[in-house]
Amino acid sequence: MSRRLVAIDAGDPHAVYRALHDALTGEGPAVLPRQHGSAVAATEDAGPVPRSVALVVETSGSTGVPKRVALSADALLASAAASAGAIGGQEPGVARWLLALPAHYIAGANVLVRSIAAGTEPVILPPGHFDPIAFSNATATLDADLRFTSLVPVQLARLLDAGRPALDGLRRFDAILIGGQALQPELRERAIDAGLRIVRTYGSSETGGGCVYDGVPIGPVHARELDGRIELAGPVLAEGYLGADGTIDRDRTDASFHTADGVRWYRTGDLGTVDADGRVRVTGRADNVIISGGEKVSLDAVQASVRRQRGMAESVVVATASEEWGQVPIVVVEGEPGLPLAELRTAVQAELGHAAAPAGIVSVERMPLLASGKPDRVALARLVAARS
After folding, report:
1. Which helix (H) or strand (E) holds 139?
2. Rounded distance, CA 371 to CA 10, Å?
3. Cβ-contact 99, 211 below 8 angstroms
4. Which has the closest alpha carbon to 2: 67, 47, 69, 56?
5. Rounded to an integer, what distance in angstroms lies between the CA atom of residue 79 and that of residue 94?
6. Between 70 and which of 49, 143, 239, 369 could a Cys-Cys bridge form, CB atoms 3.0 to 4.6 Å apart?
7. So what's the pLDDT on residue 142?
């Protein structure tokens, strides 16, 4: 059996919220929120999808090919219930969320789903450029026993930099979920010192969004490490990836989802470990490793090392081709770098070895970002290649 899939302009989060409500109750079609400005009408029939599907999320493809992730109502509601069990708000009507992320991004859609599950209306910031003042004003309207929001690290940093009104607003939240990219230790410490209740989340569209909070799988979610890769299981997992015809693309789905001993697992693209107590530790992306001079180099490890250096906390490391070495790491910074290349190379080499030492620093006026707030690594790699 199938149901209709309707594409909705995520520039109208209220419309996405209403459509999701109907999709979760079975009264309406499945929902495909699309980035504002994309080639889509306010409401557009996107064809049939499997009956179980309630939400389709188009991934931005920061390092790979974009995918259409199909999530069932059961998975979305299981995610909402696990989150409420972890941070509070299981009783109907007591929790209210503030939406500060794009509705076509899984974390933004989850704010709407969790509002629906809680039986409350979300407070929605105007779409577009994130404004700390608008965020602070919106917090004053959160009239509920429990208040929550989801942010990406760059938003948190801007709010901390904005001063007293923004801090007062942030302190009203019972939990602030931070995801989308790694939360740097310095930023986390700033937030904790300011009295904020920060929760680091880990997950993806394929897991219904964040399903690991502060390293611990929430609710019925389980984690394991297999061949150095993190795998996740539980009722929050997506149905798979949609093909062009609206059915599940079995080849692509089976490459990421598999069943072992009766348990369905999602094989993430992340390297890491899972401790005996179940705590998840992510060390980097499996697809973010290059071969430089015959040696494997993790760009995530290089980036972490670079970010620990003076004035380099927001830098991004990408790879570029090298006739001599095959590929080499390049550091991209917004504005002027915090220290010269020679000093940076010495610091990274001392920690990670010669092959990991950055071959150059590229300055950009503004770091290109995806809608999720993550650096657009594809755009950065192209920019670096064009300058070399």
Report:
1. helix 132-139
2. 11
3. no
4. 47
5. 18
6. 239
7. 93
Question: Residue 69: which residues within 8 A CB-CB, separation 6 or more?
Answer: 56, 57, 58, 59, 106, 205, 206, 238, 240, 241, 242
| Beta strands per DSSP E along 250-383 | 257-260, 263-274, 280-285, 289-292, 295-298, 316-322, 326-334, 360-364
pLDDT at 41: 45
Angle at alpha carbon of residue 116, lines to 13 and 95, rounded to 5°: 105
Please name every residue paired with 273 in a beta bridge, in sequence order, or none if there are none: 281
CA–CA separation, 55 and 48 (whole Å): 12
Enumerate residue ranges in the chain where pLDDT < 70. Answer: 37-44, 60-65, 371-372
Between helices 341-352 and 299-307, what is the axis angle to 10°?
120
Question: Given 3-state DSSP classes, what are the helix, strand and coil percentages for the chain, each rounded to the nearest 5?
Answer: 30, 35, 35
Q: What is the pLDDT of residue 63?
A: 46
Report pLDDT for 205: 95
CA triplet 165, 166, 170: central angle to 5 degrees?
120
SS3 state at 372: coil
Spatial distance between the Cα atoms of 20 and 146, rounded to a whole number of angstroms: 22
Instruction: Say yes or no: domain 288-387 is CATH 3.30.300.30.
Output: yes
Which pLDDT score is estimated for 151? 95
Parts of the chain belonging to CATH 3.30.300.30: 288-387
CA within 13 Å, CB half, 15: 18
Q: Which residues contact 92 (CB under 8 A, 6 or more apart)?
A: 118, 119
pLDDT at residue 294 in the model: 79
Long-range contacts from 156-164, C-beta under 8 angstroms, 24+ separation: 156/183, 156/187, 156/191, 156/198, 157/187, 158/130, 158/132, 159/132, 159/135, 160/187, 160/190, 160/191, 160/194, 161/132, 162/132, 162/133, 162/136
Class of the domain covering 2-282: alpha beta
| pTM score, whole prediction | 0.81
| Token output for 221 | 């979610």
For residues 115 and 111, what is the distance between their CA atoms, to the nearest angstrom?
6
